[in-house]
Amino acid sequence: MKARAFLPVLFFGLVTVSCRKPDEVEISETRVLTTLDEEPAVNATSSEQFLPPEVLSQIQASGQSLDGSEAAAGSSAWIYLLPAADWKEADKAPMREVNLTFGDGEQAGEVYLSVSGGGLQPNVDRWYRQFGADTQPIAELGRLEFLGKQGYLVEATGRYEPGMGRPGKDGQALLGAIVEDQGRLVTVKMIGPEADVQARREQFVKFVASLARK
Amino acid sequence: MENSNSPNSRPKKSAASNPLEAVVKFLSSTQLATFLLLALFVLTWFATLEQTVNGLKPMMDKYFNWKELFFFPEIGKPWQKDGAMVPITIRFPMPSGFWLCVLFTINLTLGGLIRFRKSPQKIGILLSHFSIVFLMVAAGVTKFTEKRGALQIYEGKVSDAARDYHAEVIEISELADGKVTKVHLVDWEFLKDLRGGGERMFKLSNLPFDLKVTNLVENAQVSPAQFVPPVKGEKVIDGFHLKALPRAKETEAHMAGVELSVLSKGGENLQELLLGSRSLKPATVSVDGRPYLLQMRKKLWPLPFKVQLDDFRVERDPGTNRAAAYESDVTRLDGVETEEVLIQMNEPMRRRGWTFFQANWGPQDDPNPAEYYSVFEVVHNPADHWPLWSLLISMAGLIGHFVYKLTLFLTKPRKSAVS
């Protein structure tokens, strides 16, 4: 028999389709216990399962709950001045005690104030990470007036990845202010298109300086 | 491989009348070897192109899938704006690389070893053929038996489990007095084809309930619906939903998520849950008054001993945060036996078939962290050193053969240049 006589056999062999997996499977596989099975976290809520502790604490600090209701009254009492005509109040949002927008269309951005726990450096590190940037030690950050103290100014540009499944965006910039007040961290973040954020730097500083508790 | 040295002097009548011999002759033929080598060359070319579109691991799974005999390659559409990778499917069935390699191994074994005319002068060539067959067998053993994962430990902590880079599992843990007593597994083999909305029932033979997975997202984030509203009609369970994240080329970064139902043995829906590999804690369900933990995670490879990270050191390039070198002092705890070992780049720790390579560390964005963690790539592969042995055998064979030929050439009587 000639060798090439086997080629059709080979060809038809190649177009054979493999078996499909069944709709029902019996599971009996187990694995040995490891150190990772020690101290199991039992009865965790959905929030504890899926949200990092710092995010959970921010939700609690902002008086919001995950179903959208306001959990505690009087937690978002701030006085401030809007530094430009196109700064507008936005709808309430979880974890934001003050929620503003500026600009329109492609030039639109947001400014919001949050109160949270955690340390200064971890928060600053997270902000830089959201922009894929190398973090900066707190001591090397710029300073600005914030709640009558010298707060820290964080600046980053690039692709902004807000996390928690929200889509990223290129060409963004951050101006962030952070200060410790009454045992909590108060933060103000301005995020928007890079050119617009940089053009509004003075507005941002004015806004932060105007902030006060009621 | 059959060549001029093969026994083609046998009577033609015998080969034609004996089908078995005809099959053997075909499988050992030079023509088949040529076809296979050409096919493997083309396959390698497409694989290189497809790797740039779909990433290394998905490409390897597709090109060397032993359960499929053919596949359709995908390559990047050329001349895209900004170099964007848009995959296009080549509508030409390509034979599975796995089966090509199997055929090539059979071809080389029959033609290059068994049917090859043997003589003392051919020992070098025989050794070289054997080394290639050995190399192919090593690749096969690696494909089916290798365990590979990452082990991350903080300083002062102990671990005895590595996490697979790719495979995800659903674990169901039985509890007694707040301690895990047994862990049942739904393996990735039964999950991976549910991507994109497939569903499957998992009958848990030793537990009082079953699971029904109704959706699997290969790279998912379980997101709070209030902050990240569902946009594609994703099911919201307890305020959360499964949000699909963009597909990454480095599929190690993928963390899967599933929607599932806990069913009684009678088929009654007891509870709906979301599980995600990114989750920080497992879900707890209570069936017949007993609690069980459910979680999705990268598959664990339990190790036969424990490893404690005593100290981690990193040297940075001057003036930068970039690591120039890093190493870990560990203590291996193997029963009553303990041993302190230094693991550094290119100097792994080997023990009982497991190899620990220094692979990564963290946290890398903090110049002075309170505590470091070290990451080891952990590999268990019976054929770990076979490629090295194969190359040594091949080298010995080829050197022997070349020396033999050189000796023949040098000792051959020469005709006088001037006749």
UniProtKB/TrEMBL annotation, chain A:
Q: Know the name of this protein?
A: Lipoprotein
What does UniProt list as this organism's lineage? Bacteria, Pseudomonadati, Verrucomicrobiota, Verrucomicrobiia, Verrucomicrobiales
UniProtKB/TrEMBL annotation, chain B:
Q: Where are the transmembrane segments?
A: 22-47, 97-116, 123-141
Q: Which residues form the ResB-like domain?
A: 301-364
The cellular location(s) given in this protein's UniProt record come to: Membrane
Entry keyword set: Cytochrome c-type biogenesis, Membrane, Transmembrane, Transmembrane helix
- Pfam families per UniProt: ResB (PF05140)
Q: Where is this protein chiefly located?
A: membrane
The question of whether Transmembrane helix is a record keyword is answered with: yes
Q: Name one GO cellular component term.
A: membrane
Query: Does the record's keyword annotation contain Transmembrane helix?
Result: yes
The protein in question is named ResB-like domain-containing protein
List the lineage, top down: Bacteria, Pseudomonadati, Verrucomicrobiota, Verrucomicrobiia, Verrucomicrobiales
